[in-house]
Amino acid sequence: MSDFDIGGRRYDIPEIPNNLKRLTGIVIILLIIAIAGVVVVSTAAVRIPSGSRGVLLTWGKVEDRVLQEGLNFKIPYTQTVVLMNTQIQKAESTEATATADLQEVSTTVAVNYRLDPLKVGVIYTDLRQDYVNRVIKPNIEESIKATTAEYRAEELVTNRADVKATLDEILTERLAIFNIDVVSVSLTDFQFSASFQGNGGAAGAGIQERA
Prior knowledge:
The chain is an alpha+beta fold and 211 residues long. The protein is 37% helix and 35% strand. The longest helix has 27 residues, at 18-44. The chain is rod-shaped and about 110 Å long.
């Protein structure tokens, strides 16, 4: 029992029992543990949205395990997750090239592609998230050059289906090396040189064609 004075009057204050002190201490410790647990769980849980995969990094090193859609867990503070889009995406490139009969032609190629969901770790290791500029667009350009070199100028118009199939085959083979799947390819706006147009090229079929 302790006491103190207020205005000359003495008041007695009962002491807190030792067992109550111990209980209070235990409650405080449990509360601290609970808060710490919530923080750890919140930093360990990671949600992978639909149409994506997660690349798991441990101190910056890519792990073999690919995180699937939904709720996943990682080691807090030592592991991070990079999201990779596995939906169908689109890339376009306009290229000036030459035909088998050395006519100048320009065309725009639109490609629908998707990353191989099982290989996103390899893609991230090799290309990070810059796969469009580093491999897709350069290979579109090289593929259209290789394709137009197999056909005469007028055949690009009259044999559009064959031209598209050739481009599709070449580009699919090139991008497969990087674990990128080609879904579809389209050719738009074949534009020939002024001299070719003036000579009645493409059998008078018109200068701009779509495939």
